[in-house]
UniProtKB/TrEMBL annotation:
Protein's recorded name: Calx-beta domain-containing protein
Gene Ontology, cellular component aspect: axon; postsynapse; sarcolemma
InterPro entries attached to this UniProt entry: CaCA (IPR051171), CalX-like_sf (IPR038081), Calx_beta (IPR003644), Na_Ca_Ex (IPR004836), Na_Ca_Ex_C-exten (IPR032452), NaCa_Exmemb (IPR004837), NCX_ion-bd_dom_sf (IPR044880)
The organism of origin for this protein: Strongyloides stercoralis
Subcellular location: Cell membrane
Amino acid sequence: VFQLKMTFGRLSPCLMPIVLLVIIIYLSKTVEAGTNCSAADATRNCIDGLIVPIWRPFLDLTTEDRFLRGTIYFVVIAYMFLGVSIVADRFMSSIEVITSMERTVVVKRPGLEPMKVTVRIWNDTVSNLTLMALGSSAPEILLSIIEVVARKFEAGDLGPNTIVGSAAFNLFMIIAICVSAVPSTEIRRQKHLDVFFVTATWSVFAYIWLYLILSFFSPGVIEIWEGLLTFAFFPLTVLTAYIADIKIIQRRFLPRKYRRSSHGMIVTEGEEMKMLEGNGLSDGNGYKMIPYTDASDPAVKAFEEHRREFIETMREIRRKNPHIDPVELQKQAEYEMISKGPKTRAFYRVQATRRLIGGGDIVKKRLDKEHDKNLDAIIQAQERQARQNTCRIFFDPAHYTILENVGTFDVVVGRDGGPEGLTVMVDYYTEDGTANSGSDYIPVKGTLTFYPEDKHQRISIEIVDDDVFEEDEHFYLHLKNLRVRTKDGLILDPTRIGGIPVAQIETPATATIMILDDDHAGVYSFEHDHFQAIESCGHISVRVQRTSGCRGKVIIPYKTSDGTGISGKHYEAKEGELVFEDNQTEAFIEIGIIDTEQYERSDYFFLELGPPIWAKKMSDLAKIQERFHRRMERKRGSVSSSVEDKEDNETYQHRLAKKLEEWFSNNKKEDFSEAPYDLTQDQLEIAELGKPRLGEFRKCQITIKESKEFQSVVDRMLKTANTSLMLGTSSWREQFIDALTVSAGDDDDDDNDDIESKSGSAVSLPKQPTTFDYVMHFLCVPWKLTFATIPPTEYWGGWACFVVSIFMIGLLTALIGDLASQFGCWVGLKDAVTAITFVALGTSVPDTFASKVAAIQDKYADSSIGNVTGSNGVNVFLGIGIAWTMAAVYHWYHGNVFYVNPGTLAFSVTVFCIEAVICITVIVLRRNKAIGGELGGPVKYKVLTSGFFVCLWLFYIGVSSLESYCYIAEPLIILKKKTENHYKNICCD
């Protein structure tokens, strides 16, 4: 039952014209030729077409013959419309690629480095009214032009009436379907209401203008200036819509307080402020606050809004699936973000067509291909790694920090990779830095030999320990002159054996040895005055280093303080003490970082060290004094006489330590100027030198930055969400594979069953093609293979596909024009009625599917409603403007005029204009508080709105058909006589 429901739902728009045609054909049989209808009208369209000749004989046929021919033509035309939908799919793909071209904008940020942002070159409104409108309405526009050329630049009824009929179906039926498609618990509002007002005004004016040039300025005649001016309204439409989109008038000419109002003429201004305040991006005064971006650039502003939506979607997925496998999480996240992200009308048009013909979900198919490419890249990287046959020699590790009293220590040299059975030799030598060979360390020089089974070798270095206070020093140990020894005992240069070296010295090829002086209590400092923490790290460990000695136990207080970062919100406040034991050279302070998952973040706080507390001051002072005296004695070359004159050295040291201890216990000062009276100046220097103190960086700033992994995921989502990547193709091979592959269509409800994965998360089961998908695929295979010959969208930036596609659309449109006119011959329908019903519906079915999907998936109603009004105006300005200008110029060149019978077309335009104003009024009124938006809302309002719009369309079709068959004739007699008199005046002149 569900499958039947879905199949009927897909086919219901296609069944509508069949029912309508049966009714009209039945009515046409009851019409008798009267004073206003000629009997020749019945066979007026029984002529050879531009490409397709008439099926002869075509006169005096029986009812059975006409029914059979009509049925055959109906099936053929329906199949031709299917082909147009498929080639329009390729055409819209090329337009999406063209309009998705991007540029890089450099945004200056106060106090930070400039940020590069990638934005689209094409403005969305401009692309929707130019290439997008041309793509969605190409059959109607080309039909109007081709019909004029086929009739030797004489006016026909099929092209212009198709444009008017298609506009009526788009405005009434498509919007009615979209209103009902949105669930009753949801609403869809237009975000760019000012652009909608502009395009709606132009769409109504287009048909008013069409009536004026047909029946007012020069009744029955189209002059060159009228055709040119009709075409000139097209760029004016685009320009005014662009001005409304970027809000030049509001920003430069309207008072500030008026622009701030949420209930004034600029309705979207207030709505945007509400949305921004909800996201914390408004300052409360009606102005948009975009972090670190140039708010005057609409492209940058749109990019930031798009990026924030991605971030919120990513957080939601992580909350719902905390234990999902990372690969599956990324795949689901990409699909969810693309599905919810803003898409163009081209995307929805292509998606609708491919679902209809069994092409599957283009988003899922493309994402699967991208993930397969990533997997292939990983496998290739692993294969390259496995092929590595080079032996690498390096220091492991490359930095050593040792105490001066360490004696002898080992430096490790590592070996990795390379062919089996290889013996490698490498020389090493030391080099002075700030440390001097001989006085600070014993220099070494030699050769290391790595036998085939060796992975590590060690180099022993002796450190010279003295009692002289000095700054920390360092020296270097280098590797050089790598050689390999063969099994035959030959020693060779590894770089000269074959193309790839069998062995090489790899970075790090130099080891740094830092010697810490152990004759001081130490200087305590951070490594730098500024640190960065990634918000996703959980915590940051800040290193406090002890330099210039490590003698004794020292306690260092520390505490955090707020900057722009607030404790408890951005980081975890901490206060405590670090304890440095004797000979300990470093300690770490761990601070918790709170992850807020922001795309860009620059919150900072401070960490500060307090004055050091020396836990073993007296013993260290005595030792430092003793070493100081020994240093002085070495310099003088004799034992100090001052100590001998006073008393025994050991007794003196004991007494001095006791006095110092008493003085320190009674004096908390750090100044030694008031030390015990019997301390000499040298002894005061010793006490000052031995005291622990804070170094240069006693306070540091910690800045919390955004997670690069999270940022890269968002950037990848933004790149993946470019729908041109979903619609584009890169090769003919890919196009032919897609043409022969049947994929499952994606239902709007997306009721896929889920299974529980091992990690406890829900994983969607892959969808299988339905019977409908297989039927439509096999019906469309000839068309798919034919249009797979169109150049891929990557060629010439999509323009090659654009040109070839529009040529094929023109060819099919010419065939449809001939077949539709001859179809009317067999069933007794006039071209005007065939155009506003069958042909108009056939060209609008893909747009119907696209608009329905856009109404359900988009957050706003712009893609469903705004594009309808925009394309309706563009159809007249391009389709009729170009065709009638060509015809008017042709007739002027040959010395005559271009006649157009205004009767049926003028009446149809008048009815449509009146109903269009009513329809647009209802759409705007639905924005009130009772409903809340143009689409969706309570069931009763949905039914009333959709039913009313359907009635408007049926009324338009009914009265236009009745007028064509002379049921509504009397009101047009005056217009007809006026036209005939005008013809006579022209002939006389």
